[in-house]
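Typical record is below.
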Amino acid sequence: QAWLNEKFAPELLESKPEIVECVVEQLDHMEANLKRAKKGDLKVSVHRMEIERIRYVLSSYLRCRLVKIEKFFPHVLEKEKSRAEGEPSILSPEEFAFAKEYMANTETYLKNVALKHMPPNLQKVSLLKSVPKPNLDAFVFLRVLERQENILVEPETDEQREYTIDLEEGSQHLIRYKTIAPLVASGAVQLI
């Protein structure tokens, strides 16, 4: 579920380091069990295939997160800086270090390649303004896991009035992401 939500959400979602650690531990445990198994057993090849499937999902999840960090790095770091004390982090410690280093390297590259050749009044650039923000107005498909009532849907045009909808458990919808972003974070809906 964390993998699918991350894959289909237009923004970087909350980090799930406990899930990643659990999956890595399970993979290590499964590989240790396979080493003790008899050679040529059909179960070994089936379990090896399952390990590869799990490894693919885990690497795809982490790759999705890294792509979003690279694409929206100033906004991700700004969001991380401005989060409240008790609010969960959207970046794991490793991702935070990567994002800071990526931003520093990008700034250095821009200065060395382009900005130092510009007139003095144009030698500063704000990455926060230059790098596009995640498109929270994008539409996403979702499946409702827990019934939700009175979800405020913003109008498509100014002529329409705002209205609320009820999301029935098990139903599927196509809705603007920013409308249901809190429900994705809480686990009440799953992106598909």
